[in-house]
Specification:
By secondary structure, the chain is of the alpha+beta class. The protein has ten helices and ten strands. The protein is globular.
Length: 268
């Protein structure tokens, strides 16, 4: 996503959140009501999580309760916020008004559209000023990410990404798949500057590392936090061991149920 587009979508989402922020959360149902978008919960097997449809001059938002559940409010809220992104981003809304599916059409870049809606959702649920104000009350750690996720009722994945994007700490995030492979990773701007790297640096492969940690979770409990002190060069081959950039950090890993795990390395 181009930086200008990134800023434009973030600003739009933040402005909408500012108007609908109650009890420390963005009131998504109030936004739906204001825009006369009917929310429909149903069972659609594995077709989608959420789907925004325009029909007879009205918008309808479908939530697939085969993939979502009422006790997964952060995931439900992110899905609603994502679909609201399709409504508020002009290009997306105009396609829908023309009867074009955003998910099942090869005439446009689905990946870009979905990334833009995810970006909108993150800033709608976690407006930067309020998020950073809350984050600064806690020491950088994975516990803080969990606390922020609870406070903003946002998913852990979206919360840790926002935590790093907004440079709430000098940190590196590694998201694990359940099969022990790496799903994604991200560096905060301050860690990039400190280490002289970019946001998506090469990671050093440590075979079986998450698999070993899963054994520890079985022993100590799925809600435990596995942690150790490491130098940045442990994960980042671009950093020369024992150099000025090879600073010591705290590595913490949590298990995310059946969805793999999350490692956060923070530097003081």
């Amino acid at each position: 996503m181009e930086p200008e587009r990134f800023e434009e979508i973030a600003y739009l989402a933040e402005a909408i959140a500012e108007e609908h922020f109650n009890n420390n959360r963005t009131d998504l149902l109030a936004i739906l009501a204001e825009k006369n978008i009917k929310l429909i919960k149903g069972n659609y097997e594995d077709c989608f999580l959420g789907n925004l449809v325009h029909h007879s001059r009205k918008f309808y938002m479908y939530l697939n309760m085969d993939q979502l559940s009422e006790n997964q409010q952060p995931r439900v809220r992110f899905t609603i916020a994502h679909e609201l992104g399709h409504f508020f981003i002009d290009d997306h809304r105009n396609l829908l008004k023309k009867g074009t599916s955003l998910s099942f059409n090869t005439n446009h870049n689905n990946l870009t559209i979905e990334k833009e809606a995810n970006h909108f959702a993150s800033f709608l649920l976690m407006p930067p000023d309020k998020f950073k104000s809350c984050a600064k009350n806690f020491q950088p750690s994975i516990e803080t990410v969990l606390q922020l996720s609870q406070s903003f009722e946002s998913s852990i994945d979206s919360t840790v990404i926002q935590y790093l994007k907004l440079d709430s700490c000098a940190g590196l995030m590694i998201r694990w798949n359940e099969d022990n492979s790496i799903k994604s990773w991200l560096c905060s701007p301050s860690l990039c500057k400190l280490a002289g790297i970019n946001f998506r640096p090469y990671l050093r492969t440590i075979n079986g590392y998450f698999g070993e940690l899963k054994t520890q979770f079985v022993r100590e409990g799925l809600f435990s936090i596995q942690e150790r002190a490491i130098n940045l060069s442990t994960w980042l081959p671009a950093i020369t061991p024992n150099s000025n950039q090879d600073v010591l950090g705290l590595e913490q890993t949590i298990k995310l149920g059946k969805h793999g795990g999350l490692t956060l390395i923070t530097v003081s």
